[in-house]
Design a protein that fits this description.
Length: 333
């Protein structure tokens, strides 16, 4: 009744911003069906390891991190996710959950994707649930949308779908298909203030969300072509335009959401300058101020060196494409 899983965070090349189903007011109850399909790459250096044990000994669910922290903010969402697992296994047993991130919490890296992917895979294994890979991604999606993309290997597509059963993620290419790098530049260590769940509820207040959706099928087609032909320039151009597009929607919502800070902007300018000087590197940004620099392995050292010469950074985390979530043998307790 005990199992442990390791799951990577992922960086979206085509982003998920906005749900298709009306928000019910409680995060865990929503189906988290996205407005559009999305594409991402799993990150080798930003992982969560989680041990789950179900037992009659436990009177209630507990969730803690290995640094001794009781995750008060997360407990409702995690309990709801454990309920989904319990329902499938027809059990009432409570669980102990212990979780550990490979990256410092202060890095401000969103951990909901790796967190819910690890919880899903460890929980399903602990309860001996016979779930297909597809089913695991569907289950992870109910915990946190982007978590479904952290289950399959390497480069991953989350198919939008029109129902819970048809909104799942699958691998487009394994992790060793293309030796890209994601040089994550942490410019601010604090946690973001507005959650993505909250922020997405207001997506329809932006005058641009409809336009974004209309352009999406073409953008996804071009992204798939860039991946299939390993055309780095095409890939980078879509990644960057897509990040700016999503943030333009965020910034024009009511109330507006500004996840960028001054350092984010400084990095964007630096990337444009480096590119003008001949260095092929492109940026993307999720729901926070930190900047992901996407480059090919041959340019990794140059990019890292250039970043270190800037005054803005707190920390640099270099990621390769990685495997998806999987069971591991060493338990955390
Ligand atoms: O699944 P969530 O609630 O963590 O939302 C993720 C949203 C973005 O990171 C901004 C985009 C994405 O597709 O990962």
């Amino acid at each position: 009744m005990k199992a442990t899983a390791l799951a990577p965070a992922n960086i979206a090349f085509i982003k998920y911003w906005g749900k298709a189903d009306p928000p019910t007011g409680e995060a865990g109850d929503a189906l988290r069906l996205p407005l559009n399909s999305s594409i991402s790459m799993n990150l080798s250096a930003c992982t969560t390891t989680t041990t789950v044990e179900f037992s009659d000994r436990y009177k209630e669910d507990s969730i803690e991190s290995t640094d001794g922290e009781f995750l008060q903010k997360e407990v409702n969402r995690v309990t709801k996710h454990l309920d989904r697992l319990r329902e499938r296994a027809q059990t009432n047993q409570r669980a102990k959950v212990l979780t550990k991130n490979s990256f410092p919490k202060s890095a401000g890296v969103a951990s909901s994707a790796s967190g819910f992917a690890a919880l899903t895979v460890a929980g399903a294994k602990a309860l001996d649930l016979a779930l297909s890979d597809n089913d695991l991604t569907i289950l992870a999606r109910l915990g946190s949308g982007s978590a479904c993309r952290s289950i399959p290997d390497g480069f991953v597509m989350w198919h939008r779908g029109k129902s819970s059963q048809t909104s799942y993620a699958y691998s487009l290419y394994p992790y060793d298909y293309w030796d890209l790098r994601d040089v994550l530049v942490v410019v601010e260590a604090s946690n973001k203030k507005i959650s993505t769940t909250e922020g997405m509820e207001k997506v329809r207040t932006s005058p641009f969300w409809n336009r974004r959706l209309r352009d999406m099928p073409d953008k996804i087609k071009t992204m798939k072509k860039a991946l299939a032909t390993k055309n780095f320039r095409l890939l980078g151009e879509i990644i960057e335009a897509e990040a700016v597009n999503m943030h333009a929607v965020m910034m024009t919502q009511r109330p507006p959401l500004f996840y960028w800070n001054g350092a984010t902007m400084e990095l964007i300018r630096a990337v444009q300058l480096w590119r003008a000087e001949g260095l092929p590197v492109y940026f993307t940004i999720d729901a926070g101020p930190n900047v992901h620099l996407i480059c090919e392995v041959k340019d990794e050292d140059t990019v890292v060196q250039k970043v270190k010469n800037l005054s803005v950074l707190e920390q640099v985390i270099v990621n390769q494409p990685s495997r998806g979530a999987h069971v591991v043998q060493n338990h955390l307790f």
